[in-house]
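Task: fold both queries, return tokens.
Query 1:
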Amino acid sequence: MELLLEEKNYLKEQIKKTPSFIRRWTIFESRLPQMPEKQISYFLNQATQKNKAIVIQMNELDENDSPRECVGIPQNFRNKEQIIIKQMNTLFLCKFNSIRHIRLV
């Protein structure tokens, strides 16, 4: 009887954990790039040449399940692997393949 009660409690705990896992997995699966690679590359080149501030939304989610965003002026866009973004006196390093979309500030 005790074993049955332990199993029941274990299953209850697993059921409580399941909805958050499913929710997190669904959100993660839906985080795909919204812009084609050529368009991202074009926007980054334009922002770099014209020294314009942009917002880069990443595919990754933060601890609150909201998309990560990087705001600043692209400083270096020579290869399609890494982008350096300058915001005031802080530099951010963004991976090209993790960019979801870009917009002007």
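Query 1 returned. Query 2:
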Amino acid sequence: MNTTPTGSDRTASLRALGYTVGCAGVVGMALFFPLSRAGFNISVLLMLIGWVLAGQYASRLKLAVTHPASWPFVAYFLLVLVGLAYTDASGDEVTRQLSIYSKLLYVPLVLSLLQDAVWIRRAWWAFYAGCLVLLLSLYASLYVPIPGGRNIPGDPGVFNNAISQGLALAALTLGCAHMAWQAWARQQRVAWVWAALGAAALVAVMYFNPSRGPQLALAAGLLIMAWIGAKPRWRVVAVGGVVALMAVVASSSTVVQNRFALVTQEIKTLDTNGKNTSVGLRLLAWHSAAEMWQSSPVWGVGTGGFKHTAYRDYTPKLGCDVGSPVCDQPHSQFALTGAELGTVGLIALLALFWVPVRWASRQSHPQGRWLAPFVGMFVVHSLFDGGLEINSQAFVFIVAMGLTLATLQHQQTLTPPDA
């Protein structure tokens, strides 16, 4: 009997290997996004290699491009490419922009690759494991130096970017709250474990992380979760409970009090000291972005054009000659998109956030109810920072969105990770 593998056998084996490698890459992305940029990038490489080797290109590409929740990611990236046609940005800035926004394509790639409940479950476990390591490292850094951490007094944790760290822990808080809510009816002990983990993450964001954006974003996400998750007759009570919780936090957290008191102080000194304060620089940058939009309201000044225009026309106003951080991006994804891609870009950005939430809300799997609070959180955060423009912040959005859409696409075979 001839047992020599045929060409079709070798192709099938290669595709199976590719699928395994690709799915392992997605698991690595979920694990490393809050911990290591190098680990995340290596995992992305594995995902891309696996996607290519897994074959079935026609069906995968069709799913990635035409899926009712993933097409806005492709469309936004295409709009970024269109913006290259009329930008005055430098070649280096164009390359940087392509590197940043090409990452949006990871969402449809993950959606079109993950087709197995076991791998989806592993990816979710990796998501929570990575966030848990980040959370534990933050608490440990209060007492001992953490290898690879910032080890800055008053600014604990792993991320070089404290804002990204706060955003990842805010996502963990929402995820744990969702898991506790779903487990309560059938596994109350499990629900209490999720609730305790979520409470620890909330305390980390509100009492130890010095960034205002994630604090506001988390409050918004919890309010949306309370409204969506509660039965209609209990919605007011649920939202009131979240408001009461935030009031307790605001009255007891010196970090929250100090950071938001600083906002008031910086607004009062805007006219005399605007270029030397965080709030002042943001307001000046947003005003400059609005002027750029007014100069080209439909299409904007082009991909990467904000930085070029800021240094060319707004150096005295923004302090670009002394290294002002808002000259690279105005610390608002909406202001940046409006300036560079105009009204068309803002519509595409809103579609990027709204369309997946709308599709997820129509699915029967409970994971669909998590997407609206998460996206709401990220939208609020993006009002005050460059959400998609900053890699470590975009990673949070890309991973959570990719896993959620993959989960809902294959909901008939998925078992939630608390099972």
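Both queries returned. Flag for query 2: The chain has 19 helices and no strands.
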